[in-house]
Structure formats: C-alpha cells, structure tokens
Design brief:
about 300 residues, alpha/beta, Arginase, Chain A, two-stranded antiparallel ribbon, 10 helices, 10 strands, globular
Length: about 300
C-alpha cells in the first residue's frame, strides 16, 4: 500500500502579513518538493468537506462562532497576539481540519496505509475556547475526536514532536482516558506549559521537557520514554503532531536536531506502533520555520512513512 499526501491550495489564501514566520511559503516548499520528487508511492488527495459537528467535539460552539465572525472582508484580524487571520483564512483553517479527517478516512478505507497532511494554519496551540500561537482549530485534536466518535476507537495516541509544547492538545484531552498525549519540547519556552508534572487525570499526558541546546543524541535517548509510554498504552491509532522546528537551523527555537533525526523518530515510532496499531498512522504538519530545513525534514519524515508500507 501507499502513503497519502493530503493538501489543498487554500493554504495560500491564509495571509498572515509581511514578516510573520507562519507564512505561505512554509507549505509551498514542502508541496513543491514532493511534486518534484514525483514519488509513485504517494497518493495525492484534497481534503473533503466535513460535517461541522466534528469541530464541536473539540471546540465550544461559542469559540467556533467567534472564529467565524473574526474573518475580515479585507485586511487582517488578530485572534491573539500572534494569530492573524485574513479573508482566505476561513477556507484554509477549515481545510486544515478537514485534511486529517480525509486522511483518517483514507486509512480506514484502505486507500493508503498511512498519511501526511501538508497544511496550514497549524493547530496544536489552539485550546478548546482559545486561539493561540498561529493556531485556529486544533487539527490533530479534531482527528483524535473523529477517531473516537466515527470509528469508535478506544485508544488513540498523539505524539507531538514540535519544539513548542502543544498546550491546546493537552488542554483538550487532559481528562480523557481514551487519548494519550505525548510531547517532546524545549522547556522552559513558549507557551510556558509542558512540565513533567502535568500528567493528565488518567496519567494520559507525558511531557518530556528538553533544555535549549539539546543535541540529536540527547533527544533520541529521551525519545525512548515516548516509545515506552506507547508500549504501555497500546494505542489502536496513532497521530503525529509533526512540527519540524526542533531543527538546528530553525529561527524560533534552540534544539539541535537535523533532518535525518526526523526519519529516525518516525521510523522508531512506526516499528513500535505496528505491534498494536496495525500501521494506522496519520501525521499533520505543525511548526517549522526554516524553509530548507522544513523541506528536507518533511521529506525524511514521509520517507519513513512510505518505507513502512
């Protein structure tokens, strides 16, 4: 079987303004690279329209209405200090959430073995009732809740290797025994959450805080704790919050991973997950702000997904 690549042109309409790090080029370089490589093991797909009730499993109706009202006719609106929306953000944010639903359906319907969603805006900082850190809807949380409701899974794991802690995802699933959330991240750092004391109501949160300057070797050693927790939880489906800003060249953080490390992280996780997940894996893009690093790292991440087929 092959790997799904879910993306949509609507990301280009999410204009965040000049100088904003979460810019249109982030997805363009990723997509253009995969087009150039023309790998026959990729199945390209656009996000389908989805029932808005699936957003309501993750965000409050009040918040969803607030977001809808925020999209301007022209210019920009700020949902928080660094989360900007423009007229085209409406379709882009809907497609970003829709991409993970389309990817999950594709895996469930055996269209492809696993999938990567190359979309923006990212999602893991968006809380149940709050936009934050470039994120509008929490895409990966929408996916996890979709798995619970539509496909009746009892155990879903989210692994978040973005350099920033996914406070939103933790917030949404803190009291949910069906979802395991694991995050490796620079700490103390934005957004301030993610200490190893934050464990969730059912010991379903594992935070692995890392010092600025953490090397590849130190990171990969720490990642063994992720794999141990996965083995203990035995998820039936695995979601990646795939941020690539732990790369040494990334301007927004100070970890020291290289592009090859993202291949190793992905491969190790897939090898463990096949024991209980049957290869049910969907990944969605979060951060990553050095364009060349992002291009190379996403390729190696997807290489590992393809090899696993």
């Amino acid at each position: 079987m092959k790997t799904g690549l879910i993306t949509s042109d609507s990301y280009k309409n999410h204009d965040t303004g000049d100088g904003h790090p979460e810019k249109i080029d982030r997805v363009t370089v990723v997509i253009d690279n995969f087009k150039k490589l023309n790998n026959k093991n990729l199945i390209w797909k656009k996000p389908a329209k989805f029932d808005e009730s699936y957003l309501l499993n993750t965000h409050s109706s009040k918040y969803i209405e607030q977001v809808k009202q925020s999209f301007p006719q022209k210019g920009f609106t700020f949902l928080d200090g660094d989360t900007v929306v423009s007229p085209g953000s409406k379709d882009a944010s809907k497609d970003a959430a829709g991409s993970i639903i389309t990817a999950i359906d594709g895996v469930e319907n055996r269209e492809f073995k696993n999938a990567f969603c190359a979309v923006r805006p990212p999602g893991h900082h968006a809380e149940k009732e709050k936009a934050m850190g470039f994120c509008i809807y929490n895409n990966v949380a929408v996916g996890a809740n979709y798995l619970l409701e539509k496909y009746k899974y009892k155990k879903v794991a989210i692994i978040d290797f973005d350099v920033h802690h996914g406070n939103g995802t933790q917030n949404i699933f803190y009291n949910n025994n069906k979802v395991l959330y694991i995050s490796t991240h620079q700490y103390p750092y934005y957004p301030g959450s993610g200490s190893n004391k934050e464990k969730g109501k059912f010991n379903n949160i594992l935070n692995i805080p890392l010092d600025a300057g953490t090397t590849s070797e130190e990171y990969l050693n720490a990642y063994e704790n992720v794999l141990d927790k996965l083995k203990e939880f035995k998820p039936e489906f695995l979601l990646f919050s795939a941020g690539f800003d732990a790369h040494i060249n990334d301007p927004l953080a100070q970890l020291r991973l290289n592009s090859e490390d993202f291949y190793k992280i992905t491969k190790r996780t897939l090898e463990i997950s096949k024991l209980f997940c049957n290869g049910n894996v969907v990944s969605i893009l979060e951060g990553g702000y050095d364009l060349k690093a992002l291009q190379d790292s996403t390729k190696r991440h997807v290489d590992a997904l393809i090899e696993f087929n």
